[in-house]
Amino acid sequence: MGRYIIFLCPRCGMPRYARKGQKTAKCFYCGLQIRISSARIRVLARAEDSRTAREIVEKYKARKISHGKFL
Prior knowledge:
By secondary structure, the chain is an alpha+beta fold. The protein has one domain (4-66): Rubredoxin-like. The chain contains one helix and five strands; from the N terminus they run βββββα. The protein has one helix spanning 50-66; strands at 4-8, 15-19, 24-26, 33-35, 43-47. A three-stranded antiparallel sheet has the order 2-1-5, with helices on one face. It has a two-stranded antiparallel sheet with strand order 3-4. The longest helix has 17 residues, at 50-66. It is globular, with a radius of gyration of 12 Å. 13% of the residues are buried. The mean pLDDT is 89.
């Protein structure tokens, strides 16, 4: 089981990662303070370390941008 979770901001849809068990995270794109709970967010992936989590987020953002979103 990963120590980090990758999820989407519920307001703007930008991918974000946080440590498993973390209660809140701020979206760097729209500024929303996100309450992290299974009822509020959809987990896209899990990662064992922050470097892997960051790589997953970057790939997801690149895919979203190439499809004309977030521009």
